Sequence to fold (140 residues):
Amino acid sequence: MSSAIPTDEETLARLQPIRSQGIGSVTYHNIISRYENAQNAVSALPDLAKRAGRRTPFKPATRESVQRELNQLEKIRGQLIRFGDEDYPVNLGQISDAPPFLTVLGDISQLRKPSVGIVGARNASLNGKKNRQYADRRSI
Fold:
């Protein structure tokens, strides 16, 4: 079980795209799988956005902002779980737009128990918004 917040360069680089405006889980997984490593993916983002027709310059989240986020998480004794990590919930990892990271407070062993969960996103995808609306209607 991982208890420390990963701070290696690859983790910091993997956080940058998903913390950038306009990048959701599907896009994130596509760009990460397309490049050799996350640093290459981050470097390619401005050009990819331009080729996709983005009118304003794309500015990925900075390494410094990601590091500040991790520092704050550490202060509150939170944990960061990357997609593919041992502690990442297996069922959640099966969906096509699985969150690349989970920020967790509390006992992460609870993630292995059968459950129903709602995962919030900073950049909610259209699919995520539709699923939430469906779940809202079903829970009434």
